Amino acid sequence: MDIAHEKRHNTRTPCNEEISFTMPVDNGKTAVGQARIMDISATGMGIVCDLPLNKDQTIYFTPNQPDWELPPKGIVIWSYKEAKGCRAGLEFILSEAK
Prior knowledge:
- This protein has one domain (3-92): predicted glycosyltransferase like domains (Thrombin, subunit H, Beta Barrel).
- It has no helices and six strands.
- The chain has strands at 13-24, 30-40, 44-49, 58-61, 73-82, 85-92.
- Strand 5 (73-82) and strand 6 (85-92) form a beta hairpin.
- By secondary structure, the protein is an all-beta fold.
């Protein structure tokens, strides 16, 4: 499956950092997840995480992580299930404009 490269405009750099994130789930609740950044660019990143993610879902990166200089949230562009979780491509949400 090569969907990770179909529409990418920026070069991604390999990475091996762990991050925490939250995401809204049913009934107004919030789920907390852990992810490993596999690659990163100025506009997005590829991750492997412990929670299932769906296309167009917004996730919020935990702000108290050391050296975090990226946008506070991202949107899932693609995802697929793996043996131990989920692999996903995220696009950073750079502004609140709709």
